[in-house]
Amino acid sequence: MACGSTKLWNGEATWFCCGNAWGPCASAGGGACGTCRSSALQAAWPNASKACWDLTRPDLCGEDIPRRGCGSMMKVRHDCSGASVCVTVSDCGPRTRSFCSESTCCDGVCRTNRVIDLTPAAFSAIGSLSSGTLPVSIFE
Amino acid sequence: MSAYRTGDPLDRRRFLTAAALRGATVIGTGALSAGALGTGVIGATALGAVDADAAFAAPIRPLDPAVAESAFAEGRITAINHDVLEVAGSYGDHSRVRVTNATSVWKARATTAADIETGDGLYARGLPLPDGTLAADAVWVNIVNLHATIRGIEKTRLHLAHGQHEIVGNLMARTTSASYGDASPTADLSRLTIGQSAQVLGAWRPSDGSVDLVRVAVAPGAGRRR
Fold first, then answer.
1. Does the CB of A83 have a partner CB in chain B at under 8 Å?
2. Looking at the DSSP assignment, which residues form a beta bridge with residue B165?
């Protein structure tokens, strides 16, 4: 499925490292899909597979996130700046269940629950890595 | 109030490109050591004071639609030649990252390029220039954002489990904050407890592998006293 404009979900975006990397990320590996790289425009999705779902359990936070497997494409838009990036699902994550009800706000817009993890390349395309989280809308 | 208008990335792009092409990219004329850049790259551009958060958060866009909106580089810094960082990528590639007057630099905090050292890890966002360098509008040095479990708590550090690895997290006075999800980050770390899942944002120390903790986020309500 291409990177489109049909609304899929919204929530918090976080970032993570994967693939060959420096520092503590050196042990991250290629992720659930085996293709994940920090320098690529990629993402981790909490329902990339049944096994993935069992780890992330977004339903425990009230998020019945649909299945989108490895290779699926999504557009992630920063809800305040409007900046967007097209990413490919390449891993499983974030662990939504560990941060139920967490919210991130900007300009009065708040999004709740971690629903997508972006690589540093993807996250930095729409915001600052030092913010850690961003409120986003996701399209496909 | 920032002189940099976050709603107009074009101005920032023009300034960045002009700064890079002029070659006079580092404010200040101090001699450059082998391990560090000159001073004053952030916080005092020709546009006036720069709001650090706003600057990091505002990706630039090129005028030429044929050019990608922004480019990205990552890796370890192998050398610093004036205002260019030589970066060995994690896949054997090589990047040259140009630090300009308009580059925002983060290394555990918003800082200046003078804090960048050979051996540091880096993520950089910017625009590709014709000379093959990346004119960086933002550089994050040694930044990590890890999902971990708190295994131990001491006065000056946390012991963290990240996957199969143990990481020491250094608590930094006046810097480390905790985010309990349902409120703004706070300096009160008393609700952190052993066994909690935590998202740890900080700066890796290449010298000993520990992480200087900037923010430790745990689930809302975690550790709350009943």
1. yes
2. B162
